[in-house]
Structure formats: structure tokens, C-alpha cells
Amino acid sequence: PCHLHLPTHTYLYPADPFCYVYSLFYYALSCYCFFFLMIRRPPRSTLSSSSAASDVYKRQAEGDLLARGIFDDMSAQAMKMLEDIPGVSDVQLRPIGPASPRHLNDWETTNAPYKLPQDLVAFFSMTDGLMLTWSVAIEGQGSVCPLGCMSLNAISQLTPLHLDIRDGQVDEHANRLDHCQWGDDPDHCFAAFNLDQNMRDGNLALMYPNRTEDPQVWFQDVSCCWYVVAESFTHFFRLMIAHLGIPRW
User: Helices in 111-214 by DSSP H: which ranges?
Assistant: First the structure.
């Protein structure tokens, strides 16, 4: 802390009292502007960050409102709906903090040239993953059985999945292809990343269908066949909430 010593010599100020008030006002305004600019100045690390990191910071800031306006509301609605269903009990939403911009930037650096979609960045800016579980009471037995689960990986668990050229594929029009697309083109840029490590009957993936942006959500069943589930992460999230985490929905 610094100690400001205002001059008290009377000869520094004119006899007019208005001039004295004006001088004090000017001095106070100067101090306010100085401290305001110092507070508003971005940290040096932000000024010297890479363009990739700045892009993630920007998308996370833009996505904050989207995250709270969509994902938070839908999660709250799902919990309320479950709690209102007779027989459903022990609805638990595990509290998870948000992912940091550095972790988002690290993911894109590690998995370049693939970019996280804005809606997923928005989701991670609210919570680094999701785990909502619920149980049902078995009538006449007095026991409770775990049943429903809505789970999504943290950013650190969004890891690549192996795409085999022998995998089957069904396109978005429900047509089964003779060969998977990544098996026909050796220079493809298909990539899949694990969205739910708790999935027991296949793989849920953030799939980049021969592009590096705007991924879709795909599901691979136990026969190693891939299906398009949703055109975006937001569409998938709505589907997951609508089905309340019922097994094999």
C-alpha cells in the first residue's frame, strides 16, 4: 500500500474556492483513470498466448451463456422429471467443476487438427463431464435397484478410439454401406473420440466424418458397426435427457 500525501501549502491554490474544488476533482479523476486502466489491463500471459489458446478462450467465453441456457436447464429439468416419477429414487447428480481453458487448449494441441465444437466447449465451461444416476424401488421387496445413468467423459477422458477398416457403417439415412468410409480412402481424416467410458454395450464417440470441425455423435455396437446418432453434441444431449439415461436407449 502506498501513502498519498496531498500538498497542503496554501500558495499552491488560488484564492477562488472553485479552483480548489476543481483541482481536487481533477486529481481524483486522474487516480480513478489510472487504477481503472491497470485493473482492466489483460494479463501478460493472455497477451502473449498462441492463437489456438486465444481461440479456445474466446469460444469458452462465448459459450458460457449457451451452457447455462441449455445444458444447465435441461439437466435440472431431467432431475425434476425423474424425482416426479413414482418408484424412482436416489436421483444423484455428481457435482463437477468446469474445465479450464488450458485443458481445452491442450486437447486441441494434442489432437490437432481436430477442433472442439462450440457447444461442447460451452458444456465443458460449465462442467468437466457429467454423471447422473437414479434407482428404482422394487415393489413388495423393499429394495432399491440402480437403473438409469447419464454419463459423459471429462475433457481428459476424451481420448481417440481406434477405427478399423473392417468396421461396419450405417449412414444417416439408415443405409448399411458395403465398406466403412475410412476403409475406402487411405488419406481420410475420420477420427473418433470416446464420449462415455461407462458405456457397456458399445462405444459412444465424438466423430469427425472426414473433416476436422463440426463433429457428430456416433455409436458403435458390439458387432463393430457404427451408426449416426446425432448431428451435433447439443442434439445428442437433448436425446440423452429425453430418454433419462434408461439402459440401451
Answer: 118-126, 181-184
